[in-house]
Predict the structure.
Amino acid sequence: MHEMSLCQGVLKILQEQAEIQNYSRVNSVTLEVGELSTAVPESMEMCFDAITRGTLADGAELIIVRTRGEAWCRKCEDLVPVKERFGPCPQCDGVDIELRAGDALRIQELEVD
């Protein structure tokens, strides 16, 4: 379950930013989780709760925003929705595509005290 290490990374960022931005409590974290990131939202929630116990983010709400996969198809010259990282273009079945969105895992917003 790699979600545990992903949540550890999120907590590390929260702790580092608490020192830089001078906050002592995290009330909520909004995470952007791309459909193609392989992170399972339900597992992220469970791991986040476990990892943050006894920390500045203990009890913080985890809000997960899913982003869809998008790729630029060079043959169609269009931005197309994709459901898999290395799949073909859904419009022309071509494979000359460049992933543009949907594989990220990033902190989008924090509510802190």
Summary: Residues 3-112 form a domain with the hypothetical protein PF0899 fold fold (CATH 3.30.2320.80). The beta strands are 26-34, 61-67, 69-73, 78-82, 97-101, 105-112.
